[in-house]
Amino acid sequence: MLIIKIGGGVAINIKGIVADLAELDEQFLIVHGANAVRDQLGESLGKPKKVLTSVSGYSSVFSDETAIDLLMMAYAGLKNKKIVEICQQHGINAVGLSGLDGKVVQGRRNRGIRVREKGKVRIVHDFSGKPKTVNKALLVLLLENGYVPVLAIPIIDENNFAINSDNDDIVAVLQETFQAKRVIQLIEAPGFLADKNDPCSVLSEMSRDELIKQEKQVAGRMKRKLLSLRKLFENGVREVLIADGRTKHPIKDALNGKGTTIK
Looking at residues 204-226, what average pLDDT do you find? Predict the structure, then answer.
């Protein structure tokens, strides 16, 4: 089992990714983002996103009811169906699902996010949470009958409400459920950068120990991403490939060692 995580940036080459996937001989499933589409929708509707940073340094998008509606439009709607359409054009019999559908990804809503504002700590409540379980039976049913699941947020919480969640956390739960040994992450960068402002600072290889070291040195969304990467290795993944999703052949490039290989 191979898990493909496709970033939601505007420059990601979806057609190139799908063309490469059509030539794979192994079983895979797709988890995708749509942050660029969501941001464009939000701006056009006068509802720009708001980012919260917890007191522990992790960043997340504030997810009120309006934000969840935008997720449904951008992630589960437009971007998901575009990817499914392109898959079908390349002979991949894809099925687009949000975490709500068949409770394919179920989570627990956050009890509150501790943030610091004007020198004071307060608890912010919203519709966000962590994925906890995967409806493996449903995904196996699809996979064994020749379908490729294409998964997007929102997921469903313990009270059957739609909630926002982080795709890196969703990938971690999927990896643990299926005991996938390899994960490919396609981003808008040549790989993992030692210096985020220098595209030439790609680290071609990293170890788990280096991941932990990097996690202590960064903040915001990157801190969250590194934590999720570390969890993959704690759950038994052997290899994570972080590669440029903007190239002509993103999957082939990743499998051929371009980008960052973490073992």
Answer: 77
Spatial CA neighbour of 31 closest among 100, 107, 106, 99: 99
CATH class of 2-262: alpha beta
Beta carbons within 10 angstroms of residue 15's beta carbon: 13
What's the chain's average pLDDT?
93
Rg (C-alpha) for the chain, rounded Å, is: 18
Give the residue extent of every domain in the chain. 2-262
Does the pTM of the predicted model rise above 0.90?
yes
